[in-house]
Amino acid sequence: MSEDGALTGHLRIADQEFESRLFVGTGKYPDNETMVEAIRASGTAMVTVAVRRVDLDRTQSEGILFHLDPEEFFLLPNTAGCYTAEDAIRYARLGRAAGFNEWLKLEVIGDETTLVPDTQATLEAAKTLVAEGFNVMAYTNDDLVTALRLEDAGCVAVMPLASPIGSGLGIVNPYFIREIKRRCSVPIIVDAGVGTASDACVAMEQGVDGVLTNTAIATATDPVAMAHAMRLATQSGRLAYLAGRMEAREIGIPSSPTRGMLD
Amino acid sequence: MSDPGNIQVQVNGKEREIQSGLSVHELVESFDLNPLLIVVELNREILSRDQFKDVQVSDGDSVELVHFVGGG
């Protein structure tokens, strides 16, 4: 567990307090040892996991719980790869049946090229899963109306994308991320599209409550170093937001006194 | 020819011939899996772990054995 919360304030989602505002995925790492080391370096308090068939022919490695201690990290099962509300609900129930918690990162994809969410199906699945007692954190577009509807549906957090999953393009629409944060009461976690530390920092500077990233850390040349960078960037962006930035002006204004210059 | 003491089931999308009379618990263990780390769906219904020993696998059943893997 990290003590990052001392610096940037704790994040509360539903009834849970999180020390860190950085959430990380567990996919695409070169190996499991690097994954665990990177997750520790990130200081995160919550990691996402996916639900998949066991490979009965053992051509792939064993499940992630052989490497990741659920006592050390809060597990957030996702519904990644689902294209319908029905499938997402099925995966959500399977994830909960693993027996760790009632939390879920709901994700219903609507387009194979960009992997952007099907917001209508996401909303439909969210309503069912909230009624079943899940703490739903909903992955969504950077769309204000959908974010408000997901909040109304009872989601405990709304997670607008910065840009497409795995794209590393950073925040393509900071205005709408800010607007979603301004208008929703539930925590806003920017999820997907973060490519490097500055993207996480810029996301946090918009005032959102947290950032979730996977590919940027897992596929960096040195995932452990990148995880550390993401941790610092998330804290840095949060502190900068809380500090209140100066007004930007398209003109130079001297920082040193103009009086007292020599003749 | 298939053994008359065996049944046909589908496990994780693949047809398999297994011994008849196996419980879900025994089926999971036959794949060398730890039942505590697996979630079982039998004919699209999720089984709780305390049902594993009581529920028998029947001919024609469709079983899904799932677990957590890395993901974002």
Describe this structure in a few short sentences.
Chain A is of the alpha/beta class and 263 residues long. Helix content of chain A is 36%, strand content 16%.
Could you characterize the architecture of this molecule?
The complex is a heterodimer of chains A (263) and B (72). Chain A has 263 residues and is an alpha/beta fold. Chain A has a single domain (5-55, 62-243), classed as TIM Barrel, CATH 3.20.20. In chain A, 36% of the residues lie in helices and 16% in strands. Chain A is built from nine helices and ten strands. The longest helix of chain A is centred in the C-terminal third of the chain and has 21 residues, at 223-243. The model of chain A has no long low-confidence stretch (mean pLDDT 94). Chain B has one helix at 24-30; strands at residues 6-11, 14-19, 39-42, 45-47, 62-70. Chain B is built from one helix and five strands. Chain B has a five-stranded mixed beta sheet, covered by helices on one side. The mean pLDDT of chain B is 93. Chain B has a single domain (6-66), classed as Ubiquitin-like (UB roll) (Roll). Chain B is globular and about 45 Å long. With 72 residues, chain B is mainly beta. At the A-B interface, strand 4 and helix 3 of A face strand 5 of B. Strand 4 (46-53) of chain A pairs antiparallel with strand 5 (62-70) of chain B.
